[in-house]
């Protein structure tokens, strides 16, 4: 087993307070990307 | 008055039915035809398969909801398509067969003005010899019943490990052309965490097996994503997670035969190998349902409607990978021959794969088929419904709403372990889903800021929040339509 995620990184990943703000941030970011719209790729003459 | 028939009540069929009903007045008929009496929120099957969520939590019966909302529900399955009617029936129809109750086995011609084929994939277990859910120690999590069986199998093995047995667990794709690597990825991480929770992690060797040529391909040609202020390849991200959790991997592997505790596979290098296991979860190949279509004189016209899945407004001209373009992908999901037939979600035939096709040295195709996840399934279903609504209201064809997977973002919140404080999730978004190498030539076809990855507890909360939000939406509770697809 190779430890690829350091103890500090893991602390940040699992800390409920930090992750609460991350949750809000991710929810908004995902909403913006996904609800940001969609459309075609071909131009219609 | 128009009659809209929707085949399938999965993510796309249900989204289409609910939007049509909300926006069309009562004089128009909305009919749903589906063999399963329940709606199921498939993404949460992962948690059913590790025993952390009961299957009842991810499903609800459709008939009472549809009755209340004035949507007609027929618990039957479509068999064949008659888009011109026949000698006795002038209207186009679908021949269907009831699957339950007094009518079981009875066939019915269901006529329509507009048809939405949202039948998703056939889980083609038969394409891999011996891959039968619940047999040969191999399981699936593709439906809630499969996921229940998978948990029974895993639970029994955990008990044996507690008693001192060393075990091998194999999770990934069960066919050289499987798709849905994301679901298998979620499952392997959840299983690994559960082994830790039950204090048997050191008794198990956990291995990923997949038809991807690189880790993190996910059938999407991999991704270059923003991660923690850096730019990282999805292959590096998955490698980091697997190494950190001591998960081994076999890639470029086309599983072709399953025997009791043995998975036989061919590699891209052309070698034939076998991996033994005590528990496996392997995603089967997905295929079309093998529907037939006939014209008015009952001549076979299947090739006008289907190429495995249903033909839509994609460019199906065969071309090499280097010439693939986002413009090949459909925008309106309308059948080119019969303009009143549409196929959103997984039911439409993709123009080609997204990942580069690869063959083994023996000439066997070993590479992922293109995935179509829940979000594009919902978005495409809604735009099909909106185009039909506009067409009915305007009295002439309107295809104003468009949504190509080459101009659409998607979020994939992959669970990496369950638990309010111990859970984890890998949140990945991509824009666009199908890489646009013309627009974003330097970033592997995708826009960097909008294509990002995050790992942590927040990902688990997000996936749980989506579970409750989408079930709320599917149940058509107050203001359900405000929740986006
Ligand atoms: C284990 C698993 C986990 C997943 N996790 C995620 C995730 O986290 N995020 C995500 O975005 N996507 C996820 N997906 C993908 C997502 O579930 C699919 O994209 C989505 O279900 C596709 O919707 P659909 O309506 O096209 O097909 P389906 O959901 O498969 O629905 C098809 C419907 O058609 C019906 N049907 C079948 N045959 C007939 C017939 N002959 N006549 C009439 N009706 C018929 C079926 O009963 C069903 O109701 C996951 C998939 C799996 C298998």
Automatic annotation (TrEMBL), chain A:
UniProt keywords, alphabetically: Membrane, Transmembrane, Transmembrane helix
The superkingdom listed in its UniProt entry is: Bacteria
Q: Membrane spanning segments where?
A: 20-39
Q: What is the protein's name according to its record?
A: Uncharacterized protein
UniProtKB/TrEMBL annotation, chain B:
Annotated FAD/NAD(P)-binding domain residues: 3-279
Q: Where is this region: Disordered?
A: 353-374
A GO molecular-function descriptor: oxidoreductase activity
**Signal sequence coordinates:** none
Give the matching Gene3D superfamilies.
Answer: 3.50.50.100
The entry's protein name is Sulfide-quinone oxidoreductase
